[in-house]
Amino acid sequence: MPITSELRPDGIRVVTVDAPPVNALPVQGWFDLAAALDEAGADPLTRVVVLRAEGRGFNAGVDIKEMQHTDGFDALLGANRGCFAAFKAVYECAVPVVAAVQGFCLGGGVGLVGNADCVVASDDAYLGVPEVDRGALGAATHLARMVPPHLMRTLYLTGRTISAADLVPHGSVLEVVPRERLDGAALAVAGEIAAKDPRVIRAAKEALNGIDPVDVNRSYRFEQGFTFELNLAGVSDELRDRFAGTDKAQQ
């Protein structure tokens, strides 16, 4: 299964994404991830979640090949709804979510990480939102939670990536460590949270969401509307076909 969930004796629940070759999730994978996070928050024994991945990178977004090999708009609609559900599940998880990011974190990966409560990364980690090259819009909402406005616009409009090390000064990444120490670093900060009174931590998570200046769910849904417009105009299919035919990472 691409999504697994394991509750440790210390109350840390480790949710792992493992969908080779690049952790680009199919439609069902996004819904499965959302379900795992919802279940984690609903379990009173869960004190904190560590969201991590196996493989070369944390997440490469949606499975574009699935989308391009599915007739009609079912896969597109499924991916949009699945991403919305997964990002929402991270944000609204009743307990804090610590993201452990290695290698590439692109598109939907930024949606997950941008909604997390704490981010720890390996020294080879980098983040980016290549949506403009794929005929889609989305995750600017989440990228905006990690960098200042003008940097967000530059990264979004150019499709450039930014290293996790460069995000540390912005405060959006807590620390960068060698890859072999990534799980340990994520578990360490998660352990600090798990040691607190869980009643207070759950209340704190809800309170922090309540004072956020931007409604991330509504903001992301607004972005998705433009994705549908581009699809109806035929632009998205053209760009996705070009990507699926030339990109070697997912072949």
TrEMBL record:
Keywords: Lipid metabolism, Lyase. CDD domains: crotonase-like (cd06558). It holds the Pfam family ECH_1. This is Enoyl-CoA hydratase family protein. InterPro entries: ClpP/crotonase-like_dom_sf, Enoyl-CoA_hydra/iso. Belongs to the enoyl-CoA hydratase/isomerase family.
